[in-house]
Fold:
Amino acid sequence: MTAASVPPARPRRIPRKPGAAPGTLNVDHHAPKPSIHIMAFGPEGSEEHDVTQATAVAGYVGRLPVTWINVDGLGDAGVIQALGDAFGIHRLALEDVVHTDQRPKVEEFENHLLVIARMPRGTAGATEQFSMFVGSNYVLTFQETAGDSFDPVRERIRSARTRIAGSGTDYLAYALIDALIDGYFGVVEPIGERLDRLEESVLERPAQATVEEIQNVKSLLNGLRRVALPNREVTRALLREDTEFVSPRSRTYLRDANDHATQIVEMVESYRELCSDLMGVYLSSLSNKMNEIMKVLTIIATVFIPLSFVAGIYGMNFNSELSPWNMPELSWYLGYPFAVGLMLAIAVGFFIYFRRKEWL
Structure:
């Protein structure tokens, strides 16, 4: 199975202790340890810092109008708790961050907005949880692993002449959501190219390997559908909810992100239907091929039935000396050529008849 055929990886489930207090941070100790990167920016410029101590993060907030704190890795509950304390994040929200099997959602708290979405990881359909807290002058994001589709956003922040440099936290949140959603185009569009090749294969040379690949693609699409639909609900929720953390200006741009999310969903649904259609075409092609084989075998059997009858008649070895009715052909000088000619004439007659009926 190729990398492109691997179904999307399911979120790693962290065991939950029955009866544990709400807000308990039960992290996956096998997960990467957190690394913290800070980007602060405004119309006057930007600055970046790699921070090793979570308690030092708050000291960078407020220097410039907007501060983006990005955390890669969720393997240390102490770091996550320290960041939560620094920004006054509700413990239930922090619990949602470390339990990475959350359904994408939007929740508003007293001093921040929580957005959880599924982010593509590579082009094979795997995803990871992306958690984002939007405050008045900061955006705090958590990713399961390093590596994302936010490099274009970072480049826009570094350039003081872009719209994002003079905007607030809500526009940065929109830019991150938009980049996350657009990352799915790099996953979904190659699937369309694969389906085009599979369609040609099904029509020209249907084989069992083709069926297996169709099933792999369908499994991949089913996994993408499970994340694409909730991701679209995130953008719709941000458009619907009247919250102080999203300005009317940013909602205008969020509508564009919602359009992209809807387009992803429609592409996934369309490709899923195409997979079902290809399977139907394969079965139909297989049935037609079987019908052609059966037709040929039936014609051959039909031709040989009378030939077997003639051969059986002349193989009964009657004694022509006892009676002129006991197969006089056995005493003919040309008896054998007569029998062979008779069988050949029957075969040619059937062939001409089948051609006139357009069965051949």
